[in-house]
Amino acid sequence: MIERRKVPLGTRLRRDWPLLAMVSPAVVLMIVFAYIPMAGNIIAFQSYSPYAAPGQSPLMAIVRSPFVGLWNFQRVLTAPDFWNAVGNTLMITAFQLVLFFPVPIMIALLLNSVLAPGVRTAIQSIVYLPHFFSWVLVVTIFQQILGGAGLLNRLLRQAGLISPDGGGLDIMTNPDTFLLLVTSQAVWKDAGWGMIIFLAALSTVNPELYEAAAIDGANRWRRIWHITLPALRPTIILLLILRLGDSLTVGFEQLILQRDAVGQGAAEVLDTFVYYQGIQGGDFSYGAAAGLIKGVVSLLLVLGANRLAHAFGEAGVYQKEAR
Amino acid sequence: MSTGMQESSASREAEPGTSARITSAQRTSAQRTSARSASVRDGRRRRSRGPVWAERPPLVERIGKVLALVLITLVVLVPLYTVVLTSLSTEETITRAGGMVLVPGELTLDAYATILSGNVVSRSILVSLGVTAVGTLLSTAVSVLAAYGLSRTDSVLHRPLLFVFLITMFFSAGMIPAYLLVSSLGLINSYWALILPGAVSAFNILILRAFFMGVDRSILEAARIDGAGEFRVLAKIVLPMSGAVIAVVALFYGVGYWNSFFSAMLYLTDQGKWPLQLVLRSYVLEGVQLPGSELTPAGVTGAAPPASLALKMAIVVLALVPILVIYPFVQKHFTKGVIFGAIKG
Q1: Residue-averaged pLDDT of chain A
Q2: Chain A contact set for B316 (CB, 8 A)
Q3: Is the pLDDT assigned to residue B317 strictly greater than 90?
């Protein structure tokens, strides 16, 4: 870029104005809907009330609301409900890292060993179909299959395994098993999608490596261990890091759909906390403070995760000097 | 598929001649190990065998593999099957089954007729289709323009503008300020509230930009020397070359608009304006009574029966249909290359 500076700005402007014009609609949308709200986080330091400017827009109310320093943050950080939400969020993330993350890799390995291309394509398209379903749809389907009046309980009742009048297996509303439920929903919806990425990585492996290893006496498991898994390593690390950086975000729509059925003890996560406190509860400043804490910590996590990637010798999500 | 080359990815690069030799050399052992394969056409028998250097996995393992794959497939398909079947079943069949129908009984389209006869649901479908169409068009157009505008690294303000987008991938303002902004703009209960706040995704712009940057520079330079402006270059040269990647991005946006329910929950307080996903949530998931439902006896309050299961499942199917319609298209374009390239880029 530096060597281009020889061309005077006027000339470059005359040359590049169509490009600037093309970028501008997106930039305007970004400024209005991403950057102005960032500035709007100022209400986290206020005691914001929509009634500070009755009958006018929230903007005026922000201007009129008094500043209260870090009071909202104090309230958030001393609220047991907030820490409950943090705990649930981290638990769900940890659970999904252990129980969800390996599934796409295993399915990809399994499918990669299927020899008939027709069968492969068919299975592949079936398992990643649910990725395109909405969360409402996924939760509804789970409810119809696993819910109290759902298919599973009915079959168990008909088989005489549970009493006909009993409540049946309580899967959809049980706080104790909620982690498993959330994870299995995530697996059902997105394992196939994750698989695609690993299959793509597998297809880049040079087949001669397998042949050479086999001739050298490596059995199938050793070939997987020494050829396949190393080939997947960059992808695994990249996705793992993306997920770690995103630790504080766990399927918001998925959770908010089920929070009331399961109760906030188990199903309240950071995002739903912000929604219920801030918007439902009308305590906007409090919700904004919680949201801001989440945003800042998430940013630090992403940056940290990326450093970790570099430490592993991987490209990570971004690099210091792009192109 | 050419018949000669159907083997594992491990031997994908093997030349057909080699594979043919393997086939004849191992025919006898194939017949011994698997009687079934003897009935299969000669060229196809090798398919289940893999390359010559690969040992055949033990039987237990092969059975396990098949079982696992069947199970995985069923876990996805059975729920969809029973949802569709129930939506097509008569009340009687559903009652006899005691809920979701697994064994087909009497079939009927009544549920769909009821739903599509002009009540809340049919209106919500129109809302969803409208928002999806307008949103996808707007998002895709704005993103393509922005991506092309950012595709030349030596242009004026290139880096600062790129950062405007990159930063949004790492830090988001949060829900509360976004809500206050939308309400300041007077967009509460406006369909624009479902479109504008999430209209551009930095990620999609980067996918498009990575593709545009890969377009052969010399062609573009030639066009510029011939006097074509950037808009012309984009319209006449770049766009025709990027059909697939634009389709993928449009698909991302379209599926997103069709599936989203939270923005509607947040910004649309008027239930008459609800999109399909929100209707699905209240009437099916939460079991709220469908207003104006034909199956509800008028005047009965409180004790009104819940919307029939067939009706509910029909709503589920209607939310599914657009996804299934675009799915073959997804298959065609969502090839590994695009996705993987995008993630790396």
Answers
A1: 86
A2: 137, 140-141, 144
A3: yes
So what's the pLDDT on residue B307?
Answer: 53
Mean pLDDT computed over A166-187 = 86
Task: Give CA separation, B219 vs B89, B215, B242, in Å.
Answer: 59, 8, 14
Is there a contact between B175 and A291 if contact means CB atoms under 8 Å apart? yes
Q: Which residues in chain A have their CB less than 8 angstroms from residue B341's CB?
A: none
Whether B153 sits inside 8 A of A1 (CB atoms) is: yes
The CATH superfamily label for domain B115-344 reads: MetI-like (1.10.3720.10)
**Residue-range domain boundaries for chain A:** 82-311
Q: Find the closest chain A residue to B149 by CA distance.
A: A19
Query: Testing the interface with A: which of B34, B143, B176 to mutate, by most A Cβ within 10 A?
Result: B176
Classify domain A82-311 at the CATH topology level: MetI-like fold (1.10.3720)
Question: Is A132 in Cβ contact with B181 (below 8 Å)?
Answer: no
Chain B residues within an 8 Å CB radius of A302: 170
Write out the residue limits of the CATH 1.10.3720.10 domain(s) in chain B: 115-344
Query: How many Å apart are CA B189 and CA B269, to the nearest integer?
Result: 6
Write the ipTM.
0.87
Tokens describing residue A84: 């409950």
- Per-residue confidence at B340, pLDDT binned at 50, 70, 90? very low
Q: Do B98 and A203 touch (CB under 8 A)?
A: no
With tokens 């393509």, the residue in question is B144
| Residues 6 or more apart in contact with residue A117 via CB below 8 angstroms | B1, B6
Is B80 in Cβ contact with A145 (below 8 Å)? no
Which long-range contacts does B100-105 make (Cβ < 8 Å, 24+ apart)? B100/A144, B100/A145, B100/A150, B100/A151, B100/A154, B100/B309, B100/B313, B102/A151
Tokens 């009330």 locate to: A49
Closest residue of chain A to B229, computed from CA coordinates? A18
pLDDT for B299 equals 36
Q: Does B45 touch chain A (CB under 8 A)?
A: no
Q: Are A271 and A218 in contact (CB under 8 A)?
A: no
B255 touches A: beta carbon within 8 Å: yes
Answering whether pTM is above 0.90, one says: no
Contact: B157, A20; criterion CB under 8 Å: yes
Compute the count of residue pairs across chains A and B with CB atoms less than 8 Å apart.
297
Is the pLDDT assigned to residue A90 strictly greater than 90?
yes
- pLDDT value at A278 more than 50: yes
Average pLDDT over residues B137-146: 96
pLDDT confidence of residue A150: 84
pLDDT of residue B192: 95
